[in-house]
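Re: that backbone. Tokens:
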């Protein structure tokens, strides 16, 4: 292809991308160090269109955060509260089930369920919560509990990770979200989330889950105190595990939101950084099928542009997001289906509603008459 890139480090990377060759850690660093965002995005778009053509996926989901009580006091987090904090909340089982059915429930194909590390909730409670959701909403996929939560359950319930997962799966858990990975580098992790499992433990829980047939997502939290080497290291470690298990479905880069956290002094990420993280992920994670531009985190405007910079997914209607909004996100709590369709179509992409496993969900536009 006869294309002139401003940055002389990039044409050899383009040559690899065109041949479908795997990029190295050095290539990843060169991409992060380049300010030729259009060139990086152009390369990512080549890969994205090779994999997914013109399609952008979205889903209709609902987030449920049963508790914000958390024994960890991560500096990155504005959501978790101590158990005795009068502002902390823990839903009853009835509340979880009731809340799950609020709003646009008839269209929802997925519940995304995560919460704090609560020191008193029992394994039976979690299982009953899942079983009750499955009973009431048998068609809804339960994407529940991060690797961090599962590792904590294993410690607290004195069970091997495999046994925890077996019980949750038997109760109705269908797959796992990608949160809690943050940045694997230990130096950074000790500062931003000292009380969490380390990077190797996060990867080990994912390995066990994948080997038991559970699919999961994966994430990276960027825009705090990490550097370019830390980001490339994180992507390389995810890629290595994916070579082994093939269990990651979607990667979601998460921009750090500093408001109301002990890291409040850290400046917010820019649109430039958000797009670069999407594009570099698409280029480096050649074995992860989907890259999601999570609109709640990067705003609908940037998530829309990201559909031309490597992303093929924009997440969903969400409804009632807490973790980012507690940390100052000024995006709305949910997007209507019609708004998502407009964003995607304006980016020149074909919107495809998917379920959690990326099967197409067919609906007539009329089915949403009362929802849009
Ligand atoms: O684990 C916490 C991050 C994650 C902050 O799997 C923060 O489909 C920014 O994992 N600023 C939760 N980030 C969100 C998450 C997610 C979101 C959407 C889809 C999926 C999926 C997963 O948010 C946490 C942590 O990494 N986080 N606090 C903060 N102040």
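Recovered sequence:
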């Amino acid at each position: 292809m006869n294309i002139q890139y401003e940055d002389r480090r990039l044409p050899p990377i383009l040559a690899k991308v065109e041949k479908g060759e795997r990029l190295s850690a050095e290539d990843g660093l060169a991409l992060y160090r380049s300010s030729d965002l259009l060139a990086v995005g152009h390369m990512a778009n080549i890969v994205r269109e090779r994999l997914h053509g013109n399609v952008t996926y979205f889903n209709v989901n609902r987030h449920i955060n049963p508790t914000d009580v958390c024994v960890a006091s991560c500096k990155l987090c504005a959501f978790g509260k101590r158990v005795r904090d009068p502002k902390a909340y823990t839903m009853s089982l009835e509340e979880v089930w009731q809340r799950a059915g609020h709003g646009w429930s008839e269209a929802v194909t997925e519940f995304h369920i995560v919460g704090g590390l609560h020191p008193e909730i029992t394994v039976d409670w979690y299982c009953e919560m899942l079983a009750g959701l499955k009973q009431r909403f048998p068609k809804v996929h339960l994407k529940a509990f991060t690797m961090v939560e599962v590792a904590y359950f294993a410690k607290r319930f004195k069970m091997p990770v495999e046994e925890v997962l077996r019980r949750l799966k038997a109760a109705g858990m269908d797959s796992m979200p990608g949160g809690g990975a943050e940045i694997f580098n230990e130096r950074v992790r000790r500062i931003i989330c000292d009380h969490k499992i380390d990077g190797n433990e996060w990867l080990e829980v994912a390995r066990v889950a994948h080997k038991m047939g559970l699919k999961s997502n994966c994430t990276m939290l960027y825009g705090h105190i990490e550097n370019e080497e830390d980001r490339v290291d994180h992507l390389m470690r995810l890629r290595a595990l994916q070579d082994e298990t093939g269990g990651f479905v979607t990667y979601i880069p998460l921009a750090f939101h500093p408001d109301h956290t002990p890291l409040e002094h850290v400046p917010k990420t820019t649109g430039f950084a958000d797009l670069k993280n999407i594009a570099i992920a698409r280029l480096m994670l050649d074995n992860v099928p989907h890259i999601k531009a999570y609109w709640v985190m990067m705003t609908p405007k940037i998530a829309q542009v990201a559909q031309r910079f490597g992303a093929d997914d924009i997440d969903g209607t969400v409804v009632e997001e807490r973790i980012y909004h507690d940390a100052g996100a000024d995006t709305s709590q949910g997007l209507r289906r019609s708004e998502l369709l407009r964003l995607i179509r304006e980016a020149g992409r074909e919107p495809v509603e998917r379920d959690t496993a990326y099967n197409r969900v067919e609906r007539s536009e009329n089915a949403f008459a009362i929802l849009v």
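The first strand starts at residue 55 and ends at 59. The chain has one domain: 23-351.
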